[in-house]
Amino acid sequence: MHMQEDKEPLFDAVDTMQSCLGITNGVLSTLTIVPERMQSGLVYEMLATDLAEYLVRKGVPFRETHHVAGAAVKLAEDTGMSLKDLTLSQLQELHPAFEDDVASVWDFDKSVERRDVVGGTSKRAVLESADALADWIQAHRQ
Fold first, then answer.
1. pTM to 2 decimal places
2. Which of 61, 69, 73, 142 could form a disulfide with 51 if both were Cys (CB 3.0 to 4.6 A apart)?
3. For residue 6, how far is the Cα from the chain centroid?
């Protein structure tokens, strides 16, 4: 066996990464962010995990809430309505832990801010990650 043949997967990975970085550079350098357009693409089904997490905060194990949230999404699809438009009684048929405060789940901004952990989506977490990346880049510049 030639000494380089065992390294072919590594070389392939490096080639792929170089291609990805070139594509990423092209995308980011030409990106125009249009917040209104981004917001128009939001749908409440994106908050299905938030619905599951709501039940977790009520003391229901996630292994159960995951299935309940899936059933809620299916019910909304089957009835031709948005997940947000399911009534409290419909949700309570899926699980008795749902209460009036379930309406607080349907807030995209709060959903983002609830993920306030390292690598999370909250504004604080994103800014912290961006600062860490900037520091890393600065430290590794040649």
1. 0.77
2. 69
3. 37
